[in-house]
## 1
Amino acid sequence: MTVSESMSRLRAQREALVEAALEHVPFDGWSKQALIAGAEDLDLAPGEIDRLLPKGTGQAIVTYVEMTDRKMVDALDALELDQMKIRERIAVAVKTRLDLVENHKDAVRAAVAWTALPQNVAKGLKLTHGTVDKMWIAAGDTSTDHNWYTKRMLLAGVYGSTLAYWLDDTSEGHSDSWAFLDRRIGNVMQIPKITGKISKAGQFAAAPLKLGAKLARCMPTPGRVRRQFGG
């Protein structure tokens, strides 16, 4: 087996464990207990958790975000985005990303709260950057100058604020979230035209961090939900 094949196999096994743990995150949060329960579902020995996720629950969250990003890219590649206006491409990208995690809102909420912890802020920003960068690439962005940074900063704000709205949205088909998304895109598309600066972009980009800080204060401790439900 080549090194590449070995790495691919390791990634597949790691992602399988994270997928299994997802079913337990609503009760235990992103915790070692959730990973143990996921491993049990897959009939994995307890030692396999440390082999597949040597950096613990943080690595599990990073894996979850990155594999969802990859699914998003695959889904977007299957669409004819080049036939759409840039505004529509971005809207479709954000909708696609959120649709992929529709059944795991609790896991997303817990992951966002984790990224807001002081020691994880840098990782959270990196993950958000990775997500929005993939969205822009899928949308056909080829910029290489300062616009490259501005676009990603603005989209980070759009994505983060829409994510915050979406997490609590109970409207049918998340229609309220998509209306909110359209308004946010409309707002940020005017920023470069009005100011030519990115100071306002920084305010938008702060949205994911503000959301994470709020969720971090509200998140239950691991196991609390399980006790509440008698698990």
## 2
Amino acid sequence: MGRIEKEESATDMKEFSSSTKIVAPTIIGEYKEKDELYDPFEHRDKRNATSDLGAAAHLLKSSLGTGILAMPYAIKNGGLLFGGIGTIIIGIICAHCVHILVRTSQILCRRTKTPQMTYAETAHAAFLCGPKSIRPLAIVSKIFVNVALCATYVSGTCVYVVFIAASLKQVTDFYTGKNIDVRLYILSLIPALVLLGQVRNLKYLVPFSMLANIFMMTGFSITLYYIFSNVQPIDDKVKMFSSVEELPRFFATVIFAIEGIGVVMPVANNMKKPQHFLGCPSVLNVTMSIVVSLYAVMGVFGYLTYHETAQPSITLNLPTDEILAQVVKLLIAAAVLFTYGLQFFVPLEIISTSIRQMLSHKFAAIGETVVRIGMVMITVIIALAVPKLDPFISLVGAIFFSILGICIPAVIETISCWENHLGTFKWRLWKNFFLLIFSFLALIFGSYTSVLDIMDYYNEK
């Protein structure tokens, strides 16, 4: 009998899912000390888990993208002193929001007896476990987070399309001697974008990601060579503080550059030792320290090199008549193109899953293919409508990353701690209140400034 029970137990574990609830909570929203006895980390599927070093590499890859190339432009809009200090402060705020999101998710896993949660599931559980008056909003919160994730990634891919087209335009225009409209370059990218958008398994994107990493690191290194070879001394041309009108662009651009919260939950959930993600030292603290330092260095020295001529992407400042600079532009453009499929994978999976449930099995594959092509064409159409890089980056950072990266984590922590865990003098409530104010200011003023820039672009045309 003992052997039979052991065999049945082994069979049950084979059917175990990483999101299976071990024990259903008896009373949702009521915290009990015995909930702390449940360890969600012990019930996760760790067959394909990543090490601490692998998790740090994923976070670095998600943060060190096209955003870092926009940092000199951000410092130009903030001023050397204010921009440098402001970049560090915004980096600390973004890291803190990641921290409270992951910590809240882990606490909710204990309360709901769930091994792990996605970003949207964390929001859903927070509302279910919060005050009774807001529990009916749980489903709405989950849908809102998924929509915000889709909108953030889709808008990010639109920035990718504009960036690739602008880089190709510089090199091609130099050799042809013609000023070709950047929209033609955007249209020429459609075949490659459609093919990348049809990839439905992450393993097929691995070769593209490997090439993208090689191209990006090579181009990044050569760009640093150009920057440090031409750094100018601090003189009257260098602004220590910028004007009030330019500050929203600074905040929105830096938030766009640093934020990578969309990949945080998958990385944290897939670690062999998830408890190492938070703490001191931890994967999060070490990684964010490296990221913020690199962003500050790139921004400050890039601005000292190009001053007020700093472009929305520092690669656009490199001389177009030098072969090495042309190679950099093409390498980074190719790296961004190869990253398009990975960036687009999350929203396409969310949308495709919903579409598959609506269609019969016979038409599921065709329907998903059409949806994927349609989503790719949406990014192209938006890029054609706003083919200017700087207001696009500011707009995406102001609207999407401020909501997804700052606002939602603050709300989730406040709700989950509402009853008994707001701290002495309710300091968590006040802290999250200031985070919401910061997020809304970045949203309102950043969006307003970006829309004005877009309107000025069309008026010039």
